[in-house]
Prior knowledge:
By secondary structure, chain A is mainly alpha-helical. Chain A has a single domain, classed as ABC transporter involved in vitamin B12 uptake, BtuC (Orthogonal Bundle), CATH 1.10.3470. Helix content of chain A is 71%, strand content 3%. Chain A has 14 helices and 4 strands. In chain A, helix 3 packs parallel to helix 8. The longest helix of chain A is centred in the first third of the chain and has 32 residues. Chain A is globular and about 60 Å long. The two termini of chain A are 15 Å apart. In chain B, helix 12 crosses helix 20, helix 13 crosses helix 20 and helix 18 crosses helix 20. Chain B folds into 2 domains: 201 residues, no CATH class; 303 residues, Orthogonal Bundle (ABC transporter involved in vitamin B12 uptake, BtuC). In chain B, strand 1 and strand 2 form a beta hairpin. At the A-B interface, helix 2, helix 7, helix 12 and helix 14 of A face helix 14, helix 15, helix 21 and helix 23 of B.
Amino acid sequence: MTQAATVETRPARRASRITPVSVFLWALRIAILAIILYGSYLSISSGRLSAAQWRDLFVFGISTGSMYALIALGYTMVYGVLRFINFAHGEVFMVGAMMAFYVANALAVTPLWTSSPAVSLLIVLVAAMFTSTAIAVIIERIAYRPLRGAPRLIPLITSIGASFTIQYLVRGLVGPATKSFPRMEPLRGTFEFGGFVILKTQLVVIVAALVMMGGLYLFVEKTRTGKSMRAVAEDPETAALMGINVDRTIVNVFAIGGAMAGVAGALWGLVFPSINFFSGFLPGIKAFTSAVLGGIGNIVGAMLGGVSLGIFESVGPSLVLAGYEIPAFSQLKDVVAYAALVLVLIFRPTGILGERLAQERT
Amino acid sequence: MVLVAATGMVATFQPRLVIDPIVPLGILFLYLLAFAFGWMAGQPPATLEGYEPATAGSRNVLAGALAGLLGGLCLGLLLIAITVFDLRGVFINMSPELAEILGFGLPVAAAVFVIAVASAFMGALGAGVHLLSRRVRRALIGALTAVIVFSVLTDLFGQLFAGLSLEPVIDFLYTGRGGALTIIGSVVIFGAFIVLFWWMEGRDSTLRQRVQAMPKGQRSRWQIGAALIILVILYFVPRIMGPFVSQILVTAGIYLLMALGLNIVVGYAGLLDLGYVAFFAVGAYTTAILTSPQSPAFNPEISVLASLPFVMVAAAIAGILVATPVIRMRGDYLAIVTLGFGEIARILLNSEWLAPVFGGAQGITNIPDLQIGPLTFSTPQDYFYPIFLFVLLAAYVTFALQKSRWGRAWMAMREDESVAEAMGVNIVTAKLSAFVVGAILASFGGSLFAAQIGSVFPHTFDIVVSITVLVIIIVGGMGSVPGVTLGALVLIVLPNLLREFSEYQFLFYGVLLIVMMLKRPEGFIPSKRRAQELHTEELSQDAWLEIYGEKGQAEQVPEGAV
């Protein structure tokens, strides 16, 4: 899904010219780096948190991050193929989580929930997956397909509209109240692994996310459909000339992205057991950040980016902000995510693995 | 239709009667949808040159009826589902009351039949409209719209007639003040508007031609005269309308101010800013901190008017701060990053950390009223005037900038950044200036907002404000001042006048965004150049593709008939 190495010369040449803006940006970079390093030094030397607590934060970061990674796959794949940010993807995730909630709720009163939790979890996952897939495909059909070839801001604005529509449609359908997921008894308690204490729910999330991502990777690399996706991402017109059905491939991309978001939605319910119509927004933005962090358009990058963002977000506030003795620093957790987004785009718009896309026009 | 019913809109709208005993809004809305499906399905397809254009006939009506029937059947299924299963656990709005409303109180089987027939009929009507001549069509639809508008905006008209001391008119048309239309009233309105539209046909364009044909001196005299008349009317608006409507107008004015600012950033410079509310917050908080004796940090306690220069400086700084990092970023990234900035601003305002300056979640209260010399502005009616003044100023700035060097640089940048740069446009200055001008306009809006409300709270500066402003400029027409004005009036005033509507405000905004982008990306009152840009492909197709009537492609499948 990586894009062919395109014109790389233009930005490099420009950097050699010293402008006030570039001076400002460099000063900003150095200042931010200094702030982060000094803050970390302060909080580590203060010894406020024990090693075990840091490890807990780390594990929590990985489990949240793997969900971000799953959602980020949808952003990155759609971007790879259509070159636009599907703003409504966070809502696809939310719908999946909603569906998971209702299915789990219905199952929670049956004996299946306690007798074979694995099966019921699987049912929940599959239901969420199908719902999200269906929503993603419907959005593509109604809102995006008629806009192929339109100026690039137009699909973006449409996706904002789609996002709002889904949010408030869900609000109208199921009400604005926050719903809480039923607990799964066998998933209570912890699990030890090489000095790391892992909550069982976190373990399930990490394993499920790994399986999904591994499956997706194999799918994209090995199957015919995956191959056609990569071809369309590379160059839609040429792909069409080679006999690939571009429209169908795009639908496939949306469907797979939706399925991943649906799984993430169901898993989300295990870790953060409360959900309302607005809960797709923040994870959506964070997943987008992950996609950018890893290099947008790059599947492996999205996975890496998701996990790193999760770790930044859980470790960052206690590491950097606590060092400056900022009161109630956990309130600023989301600022870390947004700041990470802004900083990545300033420092390294290519992301960890991607090419220079933020500045280049296609 | 099912979605509309299931989201509870019908049930919420139902108590509102359009025409007193017979037509409730909920059902009307539902069947208007069937009408719209029929209209879409019955639309004559675009014709190719050299082919005989298909004559509109019974086929179209049939298509419309089918579309309506489909919608009606889905609705019937919903009705059955509601009555047979209890779905309230999941879908809170699928209550027995909804079933009662949908089924007209009939038994289920009969009700499904009635619904199907009724929607098919509405669909056929919708398609049948295409068969009428343009003049008849316009008159009929215009008059129907007028009846609905009169009835739905009963508060507004009630206030208007009461303000003009024409109470008898209210008693004649409505069942009391704020009530629904009476049957006689609606017939009278319908008749009057049919006559009006019939008479208007063709005359509006002749008038415009006559004005255009006038010699230059006479034309500008006419224009000044018209402007004066409008000003005089506007002067009396808040007095006649009373505090309720004035408050809504004031809100609309503040949004309009923001929309004019965003219009420069998005419409002219093509930089999609989704964190625009941050600048609004900068204005509101600067005023609050400088003027309120309750603000925690420092208390110069200057007047609101004296704070405006500081607001301007703060907004300019904020604009530069946001713009500098994003200068080298391309469109969609810019959108996300600005969104991030907006959210960062809100979270910081809300945080404990900065509470010593911004008051945290408690906000800042006790902001004094705006004072200019001996005049104190306290009621919504008073605030109408300064806000109107600022809007005029903003509109003037927009017009002036459009023709200026800056404006041309922005538009060149919007069309193609690289080419603009190659032509000697300084991209850095152009982007910075667009952000700064936009930020200043929004911050004035924020400042007036703070003074008018008297307090600021962080949760006011939510992302939905940014999106609302965006919807305004997109619906009205990006880059066009009259369009933005219309957008602000319709999108802010309507939901506020229709209290039942406000719950679904954002749903409508979302749908509106999608529909506008699909069908009319240039907005309702587009700027000429923008429309050309967006339709270059169509224009080149038009050379050999004759699309008769309005420029609409055929909608073969009634989408959304689910």
